[in-house]
Design goal:
This protein is mainly alpha-helical and 117 residues long. It has a single domain, classed as Arc Repressor Mutant, subunit A, CATH 1.10.10.10. A 3-stranded antiparallel β-sheet has the order 1-3-2. The chain is elongated. The two termini are 18 Å apart.
């Protein structure tokens, strides 16, 4: 493990501190961001999201794609929907899920790009 280097003197830089404080989100926003990252912290949910990159799918389609039960998929979809990452559309007796926002793709693509560096 690489050791973290620290300053050898005690000195603060007021300009940098003020700039950082002005730019920082509120504590409520930071809490919400942390909660969102918890949702992204589950590989099953990431698999579901990536399955929805190209087109909407019903629970049966997602289950077949990922080799999982409808119950397991439904549980994860509920969490994704509560966090506004997916949306649903009912068509007769079927319910189709899709990404709620295009930027969800960008978030995951950026994460993949980061780990590949």
């Amino acid at each position: 493990m690489q050791e973290i280097e620290i300053c050898e003197v005690e000195n603060t830089h007021k300009g940098a501190i003020e700039k950082a404080k002005k730019a920082m989100p509120s504590q409520d926003e930071l809490y919400d961001v942390a909660e969102l990252f918890k949702v992204f912290g589950d590989s099953t949910r990431i698999n579901i999201l990536t399955a929805l990159f190209e087109s909407e799918m019903c629970v049966c389609d997602i289950g077949e794609t990922l080799g999982m039960t409808k119950s397991a998929i439904s549980h994860q979809l509920r969490i994704l929907r509560q966090n506004k990452l997916v949306k649903s559309r009912k068509a007769g007796k079927e319910v189709f899920y899709s990404l709620a926002y295009e930027h969800v793709v960008k978030i995951i693509e950026m994460a993949i790009e980061h780990i590949e560096e």
